[in-house]
Amino acid sequence: MRVSLLASGSKGNSVYVETRETRLLVDAGLSARELTARLNHIGVEAESLDAILVSHEHQDHCRGLGPMARRYSLPVHLHDATRRELPRLGKIDRILPFDSGGCFQIRDVEVNAVPLTHDAAAPVGFTLKTPEGKIGIATDLGIATRLVSDSLRDCRVLVLETNHDEEMLRDGPYPWHLKQRIRSNHGHLSNNTAAALLQDLTWDGLEAVFLAHLSETNNTPELARAAIDTMLCGQNVCQPDVTVGRQAYVSDSFVS
Ligand SMILES: [Zn+2]
Ligand SMILES: [Zn+2]
Description:
This protein is an alpha/beta fold and 256 residues long. The protein has helices at 32-41, 59-62, 65-71, 80-84, 146-151, 166-171, 176-183, 191-201, 221-233, and strands at residues 2-7, 14-18, 23-26, 51-53, 76-79, 95-98, 103-106, 109-115, 124-130, 133-138, 157-161, 208-212, 241-244, 254-255. The chain has a single domain (2-246), classed as 4-Layer Sandwich (Metallo-beta-lactamase, Chain A).
């Protein structure tokens, strides 16, 4: 199994997941050229991908979706409501719609689309059950509902949003309405709310946690890591590797 954050942050997101039989992108929020280059950087040919999964229609998740799908003839799995919000996506040969809460199979990966609360048409996170263990991916969510935390249990690898530090957001330069949007139930998880969610998800099989979608204005990698490390230090269930996803370059991979 291999998991890498090709890019993470409010300017573009994409997660690469590889199992014995399957190679997936979750979101394609950089240009196709940049995604191709970042895949090459970790030794992966974009031609070898099996599919792209789409969490929601925001540009930081879909910027390179159409060009990637066309250039490499990739099937795209997304919600119908998400598709409708992407009128300029262009022609894609294989669009495979899923339902929120739905389940589907891509080779050796069982995908579950977990409904999230976020200001998009039908935002979802994903759990990927593979023969090598379960991966959970949840970014762009205002709150972690019971359904989200229940769905993300028993993961070997988690990709969780730590979008902002609550004080930096409060004291920062954003206009009031944008601050309100970010901290609303349909906004983004703070470092502290992500730590509380992670505390709920710790178990002795959790090996790696990626901190994702950090705001460049309202957070720092050090603050995000500190919030998570403080929580992890206070429990003795597991000590996963913690990696902070970056906007400008590919994160270290989890490989097993
Ligand atoms: Zn986003
Ligand atoms: Zn979003």
